[in-house]
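This part of the workshop introduces the protein records we will be handling. To make this concrete, we reproduce a full record directly below:
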Amino acid sequence: MSSHDALPTAAPDAAAPDAAAPDAAAPGGSDRRRWIALAIVMTAAFMDLVDATIVNIAIPSIERDLGASFGAIQWITAGYALAFAAGLITGGRLGDIYGRKRLFLTGTAGFTLASALCGFAANQEMLVGSRLLQGAAAAMMVPQVLSIVHVTFPAHERGKVFGLFGAIIGLGAVSGPLLGALLTQWNIAGLEWRPIFLINLPVGIAALILGRRFITESKAPKALKLDMVGVLLVTVALLMLIYPLTRGRELGWPLWGHLMMAGSVLVFGALVAYEKHKTKKDGSPLVELSLFKVKSFAAGIAVQLTFGVVMGIFFLVWTLYMQIGLGWTPLKAGLTGVPFSIAVSTAAGLSVQQLVPRFGRKVLQAGALTMGAGILLYSFVAGRYGTDIHPWQMIPALVVMGLGMGLIVAPLTDAVLSEVPREHAGSASGLINTTGQMGNALGLGLVSVVFFGTVDEKRLAALPQETGKAFTDAFQNSLGWAAVVLAGIFLVMFALPAKPKQHLEGGEDDTSDTPGAPEGPVTKEPALAS
């Protein structure tokens, strides 16, 4: 690879520059290439986010076409999140070891293939299996997105880039249902729900072709080894925690499920103990426990986990409520989410560029309170109008919720990664994504408790006319739990730094990369406790 293709990967606290570390800030071709690379990885991230939510809107169509049970429906959604969460930390570390570009392209290829298998699934078992494969492939692809951004852009530009990433997160989460509605409603070539997966094929192929050309390879600055024991422990711990939650209600909450969940705590403890040993032994642990000494990272991880729970609960029960409970078409349900999407994107842009630099973590806390208020308003409206509710009556609550979500998702990533050493970018990115997805999978698992737990399926089979009221009650119950979790998020946010670092042009990376430059970042104000 020629020198002008290179991107910066050195860090003031790194022992040595990343492999293939170029000067990303240089004018000309390299600057253009890094923005093209950003567009490619952002598109892949958007594809993953859309795929995580696009399925929800098509669930009734899948249920009719494949005769899928409630248990299978949960696995079609939670199975993806489970495989994704279980593999993310490993995917991030593999990128550090073998190259982030290589893992990104490998994951993208696997994701594209799995999407084709989902689209051509002949039965519910094949669809569940393909979704698990899709989640595993996404676990190879997605951690590299934040890693590539982290090592490609200097510190003073990362705030802007992560703000864009936050907007993409919000847009992807809420545009998935609309896109799914359109593709399902159009019934292209009589394929019904299948195009929601097949649409990934051209996008994935384009990402492979362009990514191979424009993304520059980077690795950790020192030779690392894959921690296979750590991989086994983290995977087993996550499966022991999330599997019983997902299957518990369907199986009547057996004793073994409770024992598995309790045992997962012990396995997580064993993981921490082993990772400490591994760090002392050869410095190549799967999980960099030292990252949790960075206050902004540890607090951000906690917020990411609990926020994922809210997202996992809300998006699935929202779809079930509108389409099965209210009997709306996929298109009507999808269009109902448009005000939400607009509000998220608007608030995301404002939060990073204008609000967070002035008000710091208060913006994220305001987001948690605002989103909680929107959820409670939605619950009130749903109860007041019952099955006669119209989309326009939902708009105020959805706008309030969207504004709150936008204030959280955009600045959170920058807050979590801002003080992470670049040599641990892959591990940190894997942890961020894992906790978010683990929260999402927990939320999806909890749907069986907070939503289906209040629905008497035998009674509805005998009295289908009561479906609307039963699903409305279940939706209100789920929203109540989501509001409680958001209150917890608000409290956890007090552990975030009160004010973010304000990087100047020519800040952290520029000075540190210059021989003889003083160590440390140049900031407008000192960073608060880390």
Observations:
- The mean pLDDT is 78.
- The chain is about 75% helix and 0% strand.
- Residues 29-66 form the longest helix (38 residues).
- The CA atoms of residues 180 and 196 lie 6 Å apart.
